[in-house]
Structure formats: structure tokens, C-alpha cells
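in:
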């Protein structure tokens, strides 16, 4: 946490928006691990405002994925599904693997696989 805050002070936001986007992503993960969903939302929204899909797609995908996770944990499953769908469209290679991993975890955690009557295809 201290490193993120230190990086935030060393680099100006206007000169290094992509670096700040990653700082806010890291802060979001830290807040999430401490169950501070209000602070996660604030950090991810600010980071999303700094990193767009064209300027820094990797940071943008990470931030949107975090946003979808928080939406799901807050009970807004439909919005989380829309957000993760948007992320899936923007993702490729390693980012897409992380998105698919999160989707599989959600399905297993929420019993969606059992309810669907289908066998899980995590590696498909």
C-alpha cells in the first residue's frame, strides 16, 4: 500500500495517466482484500477515467475486471455480467485468460454450473 501511495506522489497524474491507472488498480486490489468495497469502487472508477481502451488496454481490462468483481459482490449480477462481457470483447491473450478464469470462479462459486445441468468446461 505504501508503495502505491509513494508512486502516486512521485508521478504527476497528468504526465503519467497510465502509471496512475495501475496505481489505482493496485489500491483497488488492496482495498478489496480488506473488504473496503467503497474504496475499491472509488479507486477503480478513478483508474478507469485515466486508462482508456486505446491508451492502455491492459490497465483498462484489469480495472474493468475489478469493477465487475465488485458489482457481483454487491449483488448486481446483471451489471457485472455486462461489464465482464465488455472486458471479454476488449481482451486478448493473457488478459482474456484472466477474464475466463474469473468467469469460471464466479460460476463455480455461484452454483451456476449445477443449476444449468451442464458439466463445467473450465478448460474449453
Amino acid at each position: 500500500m505504501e508503495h502505491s501511495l509513494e508512486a502516486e506522489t512521485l508521478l504527476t497524474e497528468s504526465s503519467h495517466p497510465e502509471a496512475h491507472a495501475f496505481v489505482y488498480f493496485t489500491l483497488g486490489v488492496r482495498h478489496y482484500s480488506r473488504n473496503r468495497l467503497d474504496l475499491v469502487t472509488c479507486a477503480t472508477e478513478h483508474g478507469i477515467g485515466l486508462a482508456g481502451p486505446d491508451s492502455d488496454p491492459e490497465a483498462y481490462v484489469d480495472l474493468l475486471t475489478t469493477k465487475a468483481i465488485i458489482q457481483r459482490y454487491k449483488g448486481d449480477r446483471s451489471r457485472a455480467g455486462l461489464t465482464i462481457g465488455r472486458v471479454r470483447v476488449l481482451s486478448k491473450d493473457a488478459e482474456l485468460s484472466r477474464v475466463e478464469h474469473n468467469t469460471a470462479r464466479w460460476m463455480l462459486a455461484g452454483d451456476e454450473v449445477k443449476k444449468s445441468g451442464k458439466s463445467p468446461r473450465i478448460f474449453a
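note: DSSP finds seven helices and no strands in the chain.
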